[in-house]
Amino acid sequence: MSKPSKRRGREGRMKQAAAPDPSPPVWPGVMGGRLKPLSSEEVALVEEAMFTLLETLGLSQAIPSMQKKVVAAGGSMTADGRLLFPRALVKKAIAEAKRDFTLCGQVSERDLCLEKARVHMSTGGAAPGVFDMDSGEYRPATLADLYDAARLVDCMENIHHFSRPVVARDVEDNALMDINTAYACLAGTSKHVSISITEPQNVPAIAELCYAIAGGEEAFRARPFLTVMVCHVVPPMRFAEEACEVLEAAINAGFPVQLISAGQAGATSPATIAGSLVQAVAETLAGLVFARLIDPEAKAIFAPKPLVADLRTGSMSGGGGEQAILMAAAAQMGRHFDLPTSSIAGITDAKTLDAQYGAEKSLAVAMAAHAGSNIVTQAAGIHASLLGVSLQGYVSDNDLLGNILRTVRGVEATPENIAADVIAQVCLGPGHYLGEKHTFNRMKSDYFYPHIGDRRTPTEWHEDGSKDVGEVAKEKAKELLSEYFPTHLSDEVDQVLRDRFDIQLSRAQIGRSV
């Protein structure tokens, strides 16, 4: 770890590099939604099947508070203990759900507007392992790895949101892990953070930590900078009781929530893409009904995230075309309901930054983004079918995501952009566009330039060591990790947190004087 004095010099350079471009080629919230893999007739079939499942089959294992709220709102319990959701109740939840809200950063410049089909890229994963940059082997993830991932993402302009990517396996107690996970993420980046919480009794401590950072409970409720991700179901069509209790506690504490259904096709959801989609949508909307009955003002994100298995082995197959089209369809259903939506995409099965990694990640992320998912999780860093995270992957994926966002931005065919007058001037004049003011003015606004992607000649590349993108990304990641330590949490606030909670990361580990 570098000393604070060394950090300050680099910090100044980072701030200068991070200064917003007045005419960027891509930005957080580029408008997607043009890709529609489902026809209007197929959307209607999915919707009808979903409504029918919820009102006739329902879900089992609803917690008592959910049963009470849903029944009071018009639902019913079957003799075998399944909670039924009438169509009118589900439609009411969809129609009255909170829309067009902001996921706040700890600083306002990092705010994300979840409006219509605006697209934002995110990490994610809950991986147990990390691809070690020095050994080239996988090892158990640590709390320090989580903090390192957060501060790397803090520097990546095309990764807009930080969803907890690894589980800190060096912290065994669940309560201690939850509070330290929140701390590591929030200390590592000022971007909006999403985490999961293992047990409902751990929610108050996470809330207290967030209130302390925000300057009070009222301040946090006005600008919540942390979302609680909740897998409220155990597919097929069964509630996860403890997770539902976490959901209720999180909403009551003022957290935005992400409502996740993650069945696995052929195992815990139907083997067909359409069947898996219908089940995931139904399970997610059941969670939305409950969330709104807890608090009609709840900021809830629709997050059907069904996964795909290789049916020859039963193992996850996150990099295939099936996963890509399933996520695009799930995003399309979110746009159909006009709900803030999150999709899981980029779960490559590759084990390192190779051709498989780039191909699989690009395919799935691009499709979810073009379909209009507001938050595309697992878009950066994750690989090995959710079993590992690559820190240098964040650096290389920052380029990949910038290019994808440029395609989402689209052609923008307007009279000004078509520039027929410029075409005429060039054809009647110099015969090329290189010296035109129009060309100069559009160099930055219309073109995305990669940070580590290599566009040199083969000779230049060879003379510079013939490094592949993984090597270049590793060098950049190591440089950033040695010199960049965020300071959006003041020393005073950090000390308050350490006085109240058992923070496992030392001040030296976060680049502060002891």
UniProtKB/TrEMBL annotation:
UniProt keyword Iron-sulfur present: no
UniProt biased composition (Basic residues): 1-10
Xref: Gene3D superfamilies: Trimethylamine methyltransferase-like
Keyword Membrane tagged: no
A single MF term (Gene Ontology): methyltransferase activity
Pfam families named in the record: MTTB (PF06253)
Family: Belongs to the trimethylamine methyltransferase family.
Protein name: Methyltransferase
Originating species: Shimia abyssi
